[in-house]
């Protein structure tokens, strides 16, 4: 097969600022991989202040961008793009691929208790219509794990229309698995950013934000269990504030700090990093921790999410202790890089942490396994299905079936 060199459009939402979160990291990595393969790369985001690879053109998000797409261009859009942009793209007749590596509807379920029933129902309804419209019309799609196709199918099936049932049945044959990848080169840092008085203790790193869909309560109870049995282990939260801009995420951060204080852990066994951590600062925290931790409730969100914070652990060759299932934790456990215990089983989780930290040989072997697993999960491999499609002259030539336009109209008018 002769590789095609083409104009590639990556259309996502959000801003690329000083601190890159999961979506931002994915955009930068994908843009860089495509540019290095010889493609002319254009990235469309809300705003961009830094981080984009050299030679990549950046455009401000605007409906008129669709008018610049041409047949044969590699148009890849996020499933989270605004509805009006999605509608214009679907009506344009331009073939496109859909990047649904994150099914955000499951995160909305975890926030249902924080907003009114009417509001959450409307959000879920409109999200389902947008997903259906884009998946019906796209030529190809990308997910993070096979579980996500089942989740999407579950979103589509309740719709009282045979076209939606047909779309649900066709999903596995219409997508590739292209999850978030491990940073390269490996995360390494000579500088130890942890306070000097803590550096001789085992440090368990929570490497990202404190969100409502995590089991932070179970994690803190496990730390209390470890403290009571005399363990010197400490928990370090890398993010101490809600930087998402979503008011619904203020409460999880507040509760975590309050609970740590109530359990008499704050400042002795639980610490919240003061301030935000840039990608340049991150390697020090990962390199000098003993292991990473994850805590998942038994939820749909956990079952279909690809925990990006765990990828940094593999880049640095660090083991993982996880309470509750998620696909990447399970993958690391199968590779010998993680210990996974059942969701909500705090004593068993604490036992695994305590016994493993007391066994340096086992901890070291898990670290080696983590580094090896990371090489298998490098960005050039995880993004391989997307890169192959862009290089294939036969791709980006077909448009999917017509969306259910009555549902599309209902989406646009907001009912």
Describe it for me?
42% of the residues lie in helices and 14% in strands. It is α/β, with parallel strands linked by helices. The chain folds into two domains: 7-181 and 379-413, Rossmann fold (3-Layer(aba) Sandwich), CATH 3.40.50.2000; 196-376, Rossmann fold, CATH 3.40.50.2000. The protein has a seven-stranded parallel β-sheet, sandwiched between helices. Helix 2 (83-92) links the parallel strand 6 (74-78) and strand 7 (97-99). Helix 2 (83-92) packs parallel to helix 4 and helix 4 packs across helix 17 (405-413). The longest helix has 21 residues, at 117-137.
Provide a quick synopsis of the model:
With about 425 residues, this protein is of the alpha/beta class.
Q: Which terms would index this structure?
A:
Rossmann fold; 6-stranded parallel sheet; 2 domains; 15 strands; globular; 415 residues; alpha/beta
Radius of gyration: 22 Å
Taken together, the total number of domains comes to: 2
Sheet with the most strands, sense and barrel status: 7 strands, parallel
Low-confidence stretches: none
Q: Which sequence of strands runs across the widest sheet? A: 5-3-1-6-7-8-9
Strand tally is: 15
Helix percentage range: 40-55%
Q: What is the CATH architecture assignment of the largest domain?
A: 3-Layer(aba) Sandwich
């Amino acid at each position: 097969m002769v590789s095609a060199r083409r104009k590639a459009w990556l259309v996502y939402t959000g801003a690329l600022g000083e601190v890159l979160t999961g979506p931002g990291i994915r955009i930068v990595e994908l843009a860089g991989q495509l540019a290095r393969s010889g493609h002319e790369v254009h990235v469309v985001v809300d705003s961009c202040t830094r981080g984009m690879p050299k030679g990549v053109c950046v455009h401000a998000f605007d409906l008129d961008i669709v008018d610049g797409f041409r047949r044969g261009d590699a148009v890849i859009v996020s499933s989270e793009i605004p509805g009006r942009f999605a509608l214009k793209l679907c009506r344009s007749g331009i073939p496109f691929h859909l990047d649904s590596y994150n099914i955000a509807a499951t995160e909305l379920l975890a926030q249902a208790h924080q907003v009114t029933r009417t509001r959450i129902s409307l959000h879920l309804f409109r999200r389902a219509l947008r997903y259906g419209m884009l998946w019906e019309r796209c030529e190809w799609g990308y997910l993070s794990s096979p579980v996500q196709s089942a989740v999407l199918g579950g979103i589509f099936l309740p719709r009282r229309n045979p076209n939606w049932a047909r779309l649900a049945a066709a999903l596995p044959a219409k997508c590739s698995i292209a999850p978030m990848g491990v940073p390269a080169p490996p995360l390494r840092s000579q500088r130890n950013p942890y306070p000097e008085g803590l550096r001789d203790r085992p440090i368990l790193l929570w490497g990202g934000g404190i969100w409502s869909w995590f089991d932070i309560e179970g994690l803190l109870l496990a730390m209390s269990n470890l403290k009571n049995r005399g363990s010197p282990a400490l928990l370090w939260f890398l993010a101490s504030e809600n930087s998402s801009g979503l008011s619904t995420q203020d409460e999880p951060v507040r509760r975590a700090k309050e609970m740590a204080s109530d359990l008499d852990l704050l400042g002795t066994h639980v610490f919240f990093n003061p301030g935000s951590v840039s990608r340049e600062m991150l390697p020090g925290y990962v390199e000098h921790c003993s292991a990473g931790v994850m805590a998942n409730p038994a939820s749909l969100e956990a079952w279909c999410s690809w925990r990006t914070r765990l990828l940094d652990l593999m880049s640095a060759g660090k083991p993982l202790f996880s309470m509750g299932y998620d696909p990447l934790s399970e993958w690391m456990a199968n590779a010998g890089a993680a210990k996974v215990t059942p969701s909500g089983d705090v004593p068993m989780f604490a036992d695994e942490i305590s016994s493993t930290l007391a066994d340096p040989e086992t901890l070291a072997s898990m670290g080696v396994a983590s580094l090896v697993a990371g090489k298998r999960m490098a960005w050039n491999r995880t993004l391989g299905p997307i890169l192959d499609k862009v290089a294939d002259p036969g791709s980006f030539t077909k448009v999917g079936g017509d969306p259910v336009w009555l549902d599309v109209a209902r989406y646009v008018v907001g009912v």
